[in-house]
């Protein structure tokens, strides 16, 4: 899942971003409303975690413009303004959810996962193919009953391949889903991660490489 964290407090923004990355989410950060709008216009996000009191362009205006822009991006307002009237206003502006500060991080993750399911066609909780079972809710993966110990990037890449149901997934799309905006499109990160993932999946080999096109998970 691709997430944009729009939060003007650097320490809190970093805390949220790193925590979400540990949940195998791809996370970008914006510290003001103008930057948040620029990123949301040039990149595709499943969810925007939006501080309401952003400098530059106010969070309320960011929310309005995201709604006008259309698409499937969901908005979770995260703000110290947590009275009932504030929540009602935020939701009426077009936010899909509203969470007051301070907040429980596990609750934030659960709300983002729920919004992510609404941002795109819902996937089954357990993805299966070629003897592989990947439980996205519990972050557990097995092949033929053997537990796979995967890094966050390996888990994200495997989830993307399984979700494609045998279709080809380009390296660029894998970078978008499992990394973030700082990933160099010319890096060999995908190739290295794919090599490690193949080794952990074991034999028979199940990930196909289509040179110049991408990768596909066989039957």
TrEMBL record:
Keywords: DNA-binding, Phosphoprotein. Pfam families: Response_reg, Trans_reg_C. Residues 2-116 form the Response regulatory domain. It comes from the Bacteria. Residues 124-219 bind DNA. Residues 124-219 form the OmpR/PhoB-type domain. Gene3D superfamilies: 3.40.50.2300, 6.10.250.690, Winged helix-like DNA-binding domain superfamily/Winged helix DNA-binding domain. SUPFAM superfamilies: CheY-like. The modification 4-aspartylphosphate is found at residue 51. The keyword Transcription regulation does not apply. This is Response regulator transcription factor. It comes from Paractinoplanes ovalisporus.
């Amino acid at each position: 899942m691709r997430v944009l964290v729009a939060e003007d407090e650097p320490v809190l923004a970093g805390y949220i971003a790193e925590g979400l990355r540990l949940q195998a989410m791809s996370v970008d950060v914006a510290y003001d409303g103008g930057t948040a709008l620029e990123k949301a216009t040039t990149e595709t996000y499943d969810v925007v975690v939006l501080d309401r009191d952003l400098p530059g362009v106010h969070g309320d205006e960011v929310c309005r413009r995201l709604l006008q822009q259309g698409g499937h991006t969901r908005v979770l307002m995260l703000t110290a303004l947590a009275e009932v009237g504030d929540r009602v206003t935020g939701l009426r502006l077009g936010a899909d959810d509203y969470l007051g500060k301070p907040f429980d991080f596990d609750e934030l993750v659960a709300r983002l996962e729920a919004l992510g399911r609404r941002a795109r066609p819902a996937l089954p909780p357990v993805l299966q193919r070629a003897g592989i079972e990947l439980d996205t809710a519990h972050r557990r993966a097995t092949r033929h009953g053997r537990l796979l110990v995967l890094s966050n990037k390996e888990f994200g890449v495997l989830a993307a391949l399984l979700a494609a149901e045998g279709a080809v997934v380009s390296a660029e799309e894998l970078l978008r889903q499992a990394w973030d905006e700082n990933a160099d499109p010319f890096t060999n990160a995908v190739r290295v991660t794919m090599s490690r993932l193949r080794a952990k999946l074991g034999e028979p080999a199940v990930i196909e490489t289509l040179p110049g096109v991408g990768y596909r998970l066989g039957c």
